[in-house]
Amino acid sequence: MDRLNLLAFSPFRLNRLASEFSNALAADYARFGIDIPEWRVLATLGQHAEPRSAAYVVRCTRTHKSRISRAVGHLIELGLVARRESGDDRREMMLELTPQGRQTYAELVPILLAREAKLLSGLSEAQRRDFDRLLGALEESLGLVREREE
Q1: Are the C-beta atoms of 81 and 45 separated by less than 8 Å?
Q2: For residues 95 and 83, is the Cβ–Cβ distance under 8 A?
Q3: Closest Cα partner for 35 from 73, 1, 2, 84?
Q4: Could you tell me the residue ranges of all domains in the chain?
Q5: What is the Cα 131 distance to its own chain's centre?
Q6: Of 28, 39, 106, 127, which has the highest C-beta tally within 10 A?
Q7: For residue range 57-101, what is the model confidence (pLDDT) as tens digits?
Q8: How far apart are CA 54 and CA 147, in angstroms?
Q9: Strand, helix or coil at 36?
Q10: Measured between alpha carbons, how far is 59 from 18 in angstroms, rounded to an integer?
Q11: Residue 136: other Cβ atoms inside 10 A
Q12: What's the maximum distance between 2 C-alpha atoms anywhere in the chain?
């Protein structure tokens, strides 16, 4: 029987790293009264000038639609996100950051970029570039939405 060394198993290692990164960032989101799925909605909408659908957020973040729906509901209650009908399909609701949502996004981004820099500080500049390139290759092999597709 083959044995699996869990600590050497790439999917486990990636998941463990992702969990550590997310937990480190979660405290920053919590200061603004939001959680991880809510931040994912804010971040996805914040990088675009035009509204986006909830389906777009789901596709980009790979977060289950029910979690995104709950996150959107809470963000609307907080006054950070607004819904509006799509011009093309009145059944589809488009999401956009409110002025308060844009302000929260603008306040959070530098905090999170600083946290990311600290988390990656154990890597040299060349290692960071390699890490980014390797992540991109994995994303591409899995058909994930990537930055340059935006």
Answers
A1: yes
A2: yes
A3: 73
A4: 9-119
A5: 18
A6: 39
A7: 999 999 999 999 999 999 999 999 999 887 776 677 899 999 999
A8: 18
A9: helix
A10: 18
A11: 14
A12: 59
Burial of residue 45 (CB within 10 Å: 0-12, 13-18, 19+) is: buried
Residue 90's alpha-carbon distances to 50, 86, 130, in angstroms, are: 17, 5, 44
> Is domain 9-119 classified as CATH 3.40.50.300?
no
Structure tokens at 24: 């480190």
Structure tokens at 125: 């500049």
Whole-number average pLDDT of the chain: 91
Phi then psi for residue 60, to 5 deg, are: -70, -40
> Which residue type sits at 59?
R
DSSP state of 50: S
